[in-house]
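Can you give me the bound-state structure? Components:
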Amino acid sequence: MTRVLEVSGLRKRFGGIAAVDGVSFHVDEGEILGIIGPNGCGKSTTFNCILGQLAPTEGEVRLDGRVVTNMRPAELNRLGVSRTFQLLQVFPQLSVRENLILAGQEHKGTMLSRLIGPADAGLGAAAERMIGFFQLGHLTETPAGELSYGQQKLLDAAMAFMAGPRLVLLDEPAGGVNPTMLSTLKERLRAINRQQGATFIVIEHNMEFVMSLCSRMLVMAEGKVLAEGVPDAIRANPVVIEAYLGH
Amino acid sequence: MTRGQRLLAGALAAAVLAGLIVAPLSLGRYGLYVLSLWAVMSIAAIGLNLTLGYAGQVSLAQGAFVGIGAYAAAILTTHGYPLALAVVAALTLSFVVGWLLGYPALRVQHHYLAFVTLAFSTLAFLVFRNEEWLTGGIYGISGVPRPSLFGLSTAKPLPFYYLCLFALGVVTIAFWGLVRSPWGRAFMALRENPLRAASLGVDTRRYTLMAFAIGSALGGLAGSFYAPLAQFVDPTPFTLAMSLNLLMMVVVGGSGFFFGPYFGAMVAVLLPEWLRFAEGYYLILYAILVMLLLVYSPSGALGILDRYLRRRDARIASALRAAAGVGLPDELVQ
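Here's the bound-state model for the whole set.
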């Protein structure tokens, strides 16, 4: 199986505090890896170091075997790495359709062709398909800022898939989403994983959601990897139960 | 936009254009000067609207770019070069200087960036005033000629007004294309959420520099028409006051609204003239009107219209849903 992402000895220090302390893991093509752990254990910092939003103090990140440590987020995105954020990050004044076109436009053509080419960068049909796929059809022209929290979460996820990414990092996609919409989100993520072979890394606190979605789990505590394995093994791991899941 | 709305907008645009062509026929020399100044300042304000309104980068240097363009045009045309060449030179020079001024914006934002651009504005003024060998210093450059185009002289106020109006028309069409293109979307993304924009592959560095460069180039373009309009260029108009005035045009008109600068320039250039009936009190009255407008609508004059249209659209959508007897699916309403 092709190794998509490989993280080795990742360390991030803020002054005297090691937020991420020697984390190593990998993700294979088509895999959904879940990362769980208590608040402040370094999950989001690990994401930010992988994605170039924070410069790691030590360690290496490889994408398809190529070293991408410290690469800028925009460059990484153009290499096929996409993400969602823990807090909602849509463009409130742009419509749902415009948000989706924006999410894919920088992958089409050159700067010049984006200036003189069609206004929708040739992504109008793709945006409509994504709107339908995430069941936002009745909100196409609505400014994203006027959507409900759950709808914005769906849009946020849809934007991450507009450019047909190879690897998607989802930071707490289930946070604040009601159970019905959560099952829609899970089903949509599974469908994309199945149909496009996209690889995911998911940070999540919702155990039911993440255990049923992911094929493999990584548990972090105090900046380190505490355990790694399939969901059932993680659920039964006494160290994980003691540190995070509880009895 | 529905077909009816498009027709209405088209008819309104045609009426405004016809008014701008026909109304000046009855105006005197001073009236034509003021209207030409409105067209020129609108171009500069459109540039600032791109940098500030669309891309969210604060600039207090737009007046300096008008000065750069004005001096470029004045120097070249008084040395016998055609205005067309001077316009290209002003655009190029302002674009390059604007691009360089964009670099600090990659590191500092908001009021810190405002101070950086303010320092540039002061620097440009000092160059205009002190580099006498080039700019004529405090004596300036007089006798800036107005061009002849296809054998037609624009020396008189009316033909020159039409030339300024033509330039504004070209800028309007080009700017409409720009803000509707993927570039326009990327500029707005830069304003609303640069972190997310970068994560979607938007090269925030390049777009930030472009926002400064294009906005500044439009300032330079405005300056290249300002010089032959006034037919005299000296450092006095290009102080920080002009940058602040342009900033006011953008804010009062509606920052980030396409037609905001046109309205803002109208308020800043034409309103004081209309208030002259108040004689010595006209500037006080003008300041009070501007303050009242911004207190009522911080998003500017076009913000009022935008709010009205949004409320109306929301009411229509709600009525349509009620008429159809369906609400949003429960799972989508939280």
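A couple of observations. The interface with chain B takes residues 51, 53, 72-74, 77-78, 82-83, 85, 89-94, 98, 101-103, 105-108, 111, 114-117, 119, 121, 135, 138, 148-151, 159, 163, 177-178, 180-181, 184 of chain A (CB under 8 Å). The two ends of chain A are 36 Å apart (CA to CA).
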